[in-house]
């Protein structure tokens, strides 16, 4: 196990600086903001881009430093889960939903990783930084649903909000989290917007030997490691 894998599995997160160049982040931010409606008032909350963000996501997934980081964690074979995250949020407000502590998944048994790429934010602005609770990926599961995960303040562990820490991030930094780690987004401010890309990645399922309908293979290949007699299961 690499030191990066050990840190992620132990603490539930891993941060790396300057994975994407600031110049590339600025280009992507300008491109993404061009998709905002001329009359969009970001001061009232967040704008979530999905389809307009697809080209930017495809571009970022080709960044050599990011691919090397993911390979450290997942190995040579990994894919994108397209129906969880895979969007960009442009935020110049304080949306209460975004800043509530939550998980991205309901159960630990086969969870992917969440990868956050900061594209733009105010320099040294703690308001824009995400927060998380180290080690919370090991906490029990619950049933307070939130589109796949759940809110911490709706569980018996709500008092644990006091254990949250901020993760400083600048444009180009990447934060990788276990899908079960409790975390909350940062926010923009009146002075500067926050532009964050969110990705969902995992290794291929060796028991199906297939890329699922909501998955896209990004690196490596898919192998079948199940019992031979069940390979053609229909």
Give an overview in words.
The protein has 234 residues and is of the alpha+beta class. Helices cover 17% and strands 23% of the residues. The protein has 4 helices and 13 strands. Strands 1, 2, 3, 4, 6, 10, 12 and 13 form an 8-stranded antiparallel β-sheet that branches. Strands 9-7-11 form a 3-stranded antiparallel β-sheet, with no helix packed on it. It starts with a helix and ends in a 15-residue tail after the last strand. 36% of the residues are buried.
Key features of this structure:
single chain; about 230 residues; 3-stranded antiparallel sheet; 4 helices; about 15% helix
- N- to C-terminal distance: 35 Å
Instruction: Determine the mean pLDDT.
Output: 89
Q: Structural class from helices and strands?
A: alpha+beta
Helix content: 10-25%
H/E series? HEHEHHEEEEEEEEEEE
- The shape, in one word, is globular
The strand count comes to 13
- Tally of contiguous helical segments: 4
Which regions are unreliable across 5 or more consecutive residues at pLDDT < 50?
none
Strand content: 15-25%
- Biggest sheet features: 8 strands, antiparallel
What integer value in Å does the Rg equal? 18 Å
């Amino acid at each position: 196990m690499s030191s990066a894998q050990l840190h992620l599995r132990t603490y539930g997160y891993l941060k790396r600086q300057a994975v994407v160049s600031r110049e590339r982040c600025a280009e992507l931010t300008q491109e993404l903001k061009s998709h905002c409606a001329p009359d969009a008032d970001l001061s009232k909350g967040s704008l979530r881009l999905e389809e307009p963000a697809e080209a930017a996501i495809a571009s970022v997934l080709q960044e050599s430093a990011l691919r090397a980081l993911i390979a450290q964690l997942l190995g040579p074979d990994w894919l994108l889960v397209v129906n969880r995250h895979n969007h960009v949020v442009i935020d110049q407000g304080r949306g209460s939903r975004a800043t509530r502590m939550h998980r991205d998944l309901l159960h630990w048994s086969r969870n992917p990783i969440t990868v956050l790429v900061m594209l733009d934010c105010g320099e040294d602005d703690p308001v824009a930084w995400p927060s998380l609770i180290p080690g919370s990926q090991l906490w029990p599961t619950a049933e307070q649903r939130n589109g796949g995960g759940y809110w911490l303040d709706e569980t018996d562990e709500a008092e644990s909000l006091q254990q949250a820490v901020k993760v400083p991030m600048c444009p180009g930094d990447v934060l990788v989290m276990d899908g079960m780690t409790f975390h909350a987004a940062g926010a923009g401010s009146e002075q500067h917007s926050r532009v964050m890309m969110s990705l969902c990645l995992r290794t291929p399922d060796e028991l199906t030997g297939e890329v699922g309908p909501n998955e896209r293979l990004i690196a490596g290949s898919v192998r079948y490691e199940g019992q031979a007699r069940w390979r053609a299961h229909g």
